[in-house]
Amino acid sequence: MRAAVLTGPGQIQIQAVALPEPGPGQVRLRLEGCGVCASNLTPWAGPEWMQYPTEPGALGHEAWGFVDAVGEGVEGLSVGDRVAALSYQSYAEYDLAAADAVIPLPDALAGRPFPGEPLGCAMNIFRRSEIEAGQTVAIIGIGFLGAILTKLASDAGARVIAISRRPFSLDLARRMGAAETIPMEDHHAIIDRVKELTGGAFCDRVIEAVGKQWPLDLAGELTRERGKLIVAGYHQDGPRQVNMWLWNWRGIDVINAHERDSRVYVQGMREAMDMIASGRLDPSTLYTHTYPLDRLGEALDATRDRPDGFLKALVTY
């Protein structure tokens, strides 16, 4: 099979490697595609701790495709089933996954991409945010994740204030149901505007979906007393400082909405699958850029640089 190998910072080779063989409790997947995650960008940049070359297919973890082979003891999955999976070497034409980390996709999703991990991530963040009708919810950063959360929150009856850097993203937020949009330009102007929109109370929930210091600072300022600040951004490029005086004074709850339990991930994937199959959620317009495997480097660069109109890249095989 063909698989991508990171050979150094910003360097990829497509290599021919042996097909992996499923062990007990595993299935092999013939992949249709894999989403590109912002968490790939730190290894792509080449931090000191990164070791090269990577394993074939490494970093890809948003895969979907067909069951190609079944290991010993696997029940409920058959060769030919179209599935999404939580797997970890999916920048390749084939990958292995634990059978309990695989979900069959219904006929309603036939021919449609389904990067299960980020879709499940959005559902899990929404659940942990405990958003209800009548609440005011600020979402900082309207990319793929922020756009889905805007839709979920607004459909739940919350009043969503979307804050983002790009005019394109603010337009998208309005289409997803945001009641108010604010350009992410001036820190104090944003605080003043949200204070005005909320009568000085600020927001019941604030979801930070960027993964940088400034949006995290801003999120604390926009959270009301006894509100919840939900950290959905990927903060793995270094330590952060927080305004503990403010957080403590307001008595806010801070929720890191990242999951590490594969069972929770898979449950979120199932919930996303049900919503999309029923038509309650349509992420198709959020997959804005598609690349073949041999252009994975371009997909990673676009994910980093976010050209106009970019939200989510898919690599297809």
TrEMBL record:
Keyword entries, A-Z: Metal-binding, Oxidoreductase, Zinc
Q: Which cofactor does it need?
A: Zn(2+)
- Sequence ranges assigned to domain Alcohol dehydrogenase-like N-terminal in this UniProt record: 23-106
Which Pfam families is this protein grouped with? Answer: ADH_N, ADH_zinc_N
* InterPro entries reported in the protein's UniProt record: ADH-like_C, ADH-like_N, ADH_Zn_CS, GroES-like_sf, NAD(P)-bd_dom_sf
- Where the record annotates domain Alcohol dehydrogenase-like C-terminal, the positions are 145-244
- What's this protein's family per the entry? Belongs to the zinc-containing alcohol dehydrogenase family.
Please give the name of this protein.
Zinc-binding dehydrogenase
The taxonomic lineage of its organism, from the top, reads: Bacteria, Pseudomonadati, Pseudomonadota, Alphaproteobacteria, Hyphomicrobiales
